[in-house]
Amino acid sequence: MTTLAPERRLAPHAVDLAVPLRTAIAALVLSCLLVSFQPFVVTFEAKTPDAGSPVNQLGYGLLMLAGILSHLTLTPPALLRRMAHPVWLLMGFWLVFASFHSPWPDVSLRAVAFTLAAMIAATAVFVLPPDAGAFRVALATAVLAVLGLSYAGIVLLPSAAIHQAGELESIHAGLWRGIYSHKNVAGPVMACLCYAGFYLFRCGWRGIGGAIALLSAFFVLETGSKTTLALLPAVALLVLGARRMGRVPAVLLLALALSAMAAFTLGTVLSPALYAVQQWVLPGTTLTGRLDLWRFALQALAGHEWLGMGFDSFWTTPAVAAAEVPLGSSWDPRGIVNAHSGYLDLVIAMGWPGLVFGLLLIVALPLRDFTRARADDEARRLADLFLMVLAFTLLNAFVESFLFARNAPVWMLLWLSVAGLRFLTRQPQVESSIRT
């Protein structure tokens, strides 16, 4: 019974060596994508046109190479063609095309190149494990690597793993961030790892799955991330509860939740009517200053609505550093590293068409794939995991920025769910490697 990607059959004499080797490579790739190549880095510096990290360049380059080799040697041509969906290709084209119109096209193109490298590497995670058990081993290994390093940091490197009073955002002092740069990165990652624990528990890995879920949930609590604390149980209840009514109701409920979140957040700076409704429901709310930041970004976008400004070519660059701070603004945009809205940052990077293409890639297509996923038990459990991660990250992206950021573990988790649902869609039966 297939669970993920079908593949070419290995020669019998190669099986014994291939199974642990491929599982180890999958675990390593996934661990690198979730841990990143620079854990415990907590400082942000203004970017210049020649900014770049040799560590990231080498690391993501090697991951892309591993991904390409995995697909060339393990993935049947029929599945490769299936992966080359027009929406995926269109998004890739627009990422590159919009970057040529950046004030610093070399910076944008480099960012896009490594984003695509990480995305290619992530898809290899689904073809490397030779069976369902091996996939669970790779997943559990990567999750435990994140949890182990993060908890070790709390004990051994508290100045790096815990927000300190002497930092710019002293209000966060004492809150946990683990191996990540900020509590608002650590919280969403840990929430997704909690869902992975649910999946492993449902697969019969009671001890490991339960431990992962509990450790992840406790870490979320210690991050103090209010959005994550609210979304974590809500998404699990939404997906698992609606699942009992069928796939289509689950998708419709998620679409409704996304629409409501869009209207309540970014919609309020685009529509006076929505803003009036928001202020009637929550008088005086600014979403922790985000409304002022979004208005500033939309004003700065004037003249670039169709093609945007390119990736890594706006926030923390001289374009913002030299900007005049709007009178009465809750935040000084000159010290901000992103829009605190992934969807708005897509518009800034690629224009409004880029947002449309992005929504097709990360919302419309995976939701359709969920309704078409195979019905066997293993596929159903995986589809539930991917939908929970997808739902959580899409909702979280309304107030945090990580979409298409190659070094953002939350984006990697979102993309893994998108790619995973694509692999799970019903397809003609071919020789399979991942079996229950």
Question: Which helices and strands occur, and which strands form pairs?
Answer:
Elements: H1 12-35, H2 54-74, H3 77-83, H4 86-99, H5 105-124, H6 132-156, H7 158-161, H8 183-202, H9 206-223, H10 226-243, H11 247-264, H12 267-270, H13 272-281, H14 290-300, H15 318-321, H16 342-371, H17 377-396, H18 409-424
Structure description:
With 436 residues, this protein is mainly alpha-helical. It has a domain at 12-126 and 237-264 and 336-424. Helix content is 65%, strand content 0%. The chain is built from 18 helices and no strands.
Key words describing this protein structure:
mainly alpha, 436 residues, disordered C terminus, 65% helix, single chain
Could you provide a short overview of the structure?
The protein is built from 18 helices and no strands. The protein is mostly helical.
Q: Poorly predicted ranges (pLDDT <50, ≥5 residues)? A: 44-50, 428-436
Structural class by sheet pairing and helices: mainly alpha
Mean pLDDT across the residues is: 88
> Helix coverage percent of residues?
55-70%
Total number of helical segments? 18
Beta strands, count: 0
Largest β sheet strand count, sense and barrel closure: none
Distance between the termini: 6 Å
Looking at the structure, what is the overall shape?
globular
Q: What percentage of the residues does DSSP assign to strands (E)? A: under 5%
Rg value: 21 Å
Listing every helix as H and every strand as E from the N terminus to the C terminus, the arrangement reads HHHHHHHHHHHHHHHHHH
